[in-house]
Amino acid sequence: METKVSSLKKEVIIGDTQPTVIIGERINPAGKKKLAEALKAGDLEIVRSEALAQVQAGADILDVNVGTFGVDEVALLPRAVQAVMDTVDVPLCIDSNNPAALEAAIKIYKGKPLVNSVTGEERSLKRVLPLVKEYKAAVVGLVQDDEGIPKDAQRRVSIAHKIVERAEAAGIPREDVVIDCLAFAVGADTNSGLAVLEAIQRIKAELGVNMTLGASNISFGLPDRELLNNAFAAMVIAAGITCLITDAAKVRPAIIAADLVLGRDKHARRYIEAYRQRQRQQIVE
Amino acid sequence: MAKDLVKTLADLKEQEVMEIVKSRLSAGDDPLKILEDARKGMEIVGKRFASSEYFIPDLVYSGEILRAVTELVKPKLSKTTESKKLGKVVFGTVAGDIHDIGKDIVVFMLDVNGFEVYDLGVDVPVQKFVEKIKETGAPIVGLSGFLTLAFDSMKQTIEAMKAAGVRDKVKVMIGGGQISEEVRKYTGADAYGKDAMAGVALAKQWAGVK
Description:
The structure holds 2 protein chains of 2 kinds. Chain A has 10 helices and 10 strands. Chain A is an alpha/beta fold. Chain B folds into 2 domains: 78 residues, Methyltransferase, Methionine Synthase (B12-binding Domains), Chain A, domain 1 (Orthogonal Bundle); 120 residues, Cobalamin-binding domain (Rossmann fold, 3-Layer(aba) Sandwich). Chain B contains 10 helices and 5 strands; from the N terminus they run αααααβαβαβαβαβα. Classes of the chains: A alpha/beta, B alpha/beta.
């Protein structure tokens, strides 16, 4: 199954015969004081520089999220999306839990965006799915619902079924739904990683949809986060994840290595090219 | 003399901790003294967590060890001391937000540190907080939220406490991924905690425990 998203100039295909697609996570003020302050002041300079840096680091799609206390997302999200479109030519993942902000940004977006996100919560399904349908976008479906955040694989799988069914009923083709199985800090619950892996495998088998994951949550509160993020990235890709929301500069080497092992990098072109690029950078430095 | 319980617990040596507690109990040691040592060990854990020597799993593990110690000691306590808690706390994730991982850790740490916690769960309607505060007479309230939209719910929850005439009777702490001093002011809470141990420290301060 292929999910296609696009900008004015580029199309990115998410699918299990493709290399894993990297969605750059860094335009998001959560945990980033400087960015949060700049956004509050309406200053988009960091947004532009992060956009450029992430694309240079190999991000295929960029996530754009401006949600922080003191920001009017409905006004600022479209401005940030516009700023990123003016800076780079990759497709965007428009990210907010405020549907009005999503709508305002989708309206001005040029191409087919990935909308992040709809959840299994009734108010979200009712509000976001019509938007996705109207603008012929693709959408990330977060597996949480009115009962709360899932702890085990079974609830994740059943919420994924619900989101896909509701999307199809709303006239959105299945290939335009990308399920996010929700990874949480493994430090808070050391069984949570396993539950996610099991859910990914089952959703792949039962629904066949593309799946993404915010893959940096897993290491929250732990030391050596990069080490854990890299290991987790490889494992979720093996389980069936086809795009990852992550820090391209840090995690891309591990993703490319995983793709090679899984037969998605013929003649190891990407793996070797990434190696050569790192070598060139070392010489320059 | 058996090994030092304070240090052994602080070092998270579960098995040794249990052995020390069992041998002290069978030697007729005062159970309250054992719990006091355990609490001192937990204080060291808290300090190590604050200085980034310990991490979240260390914190959760220390809580589980303390809980196991408490279970062992409980039968030896007289009825009056057994029911003695540090204070009641009403806790929940506010309306419109369903995030529970952070809340659950704080609730757990409050519980093992001797508080009687009424955990209302997630997406808790404003009125439910007010009712529970009235019903229990709890002097401490914890509001958790991860989403930015939770800040409005926190504000509304605190305003509802005012309207119901209970705001003056409670201290309110807030916590969650993006909480700051600015958010605290906006919501009208008394304090915010940046992690579970900060929440425990606030609760102890408000309950008059040193």
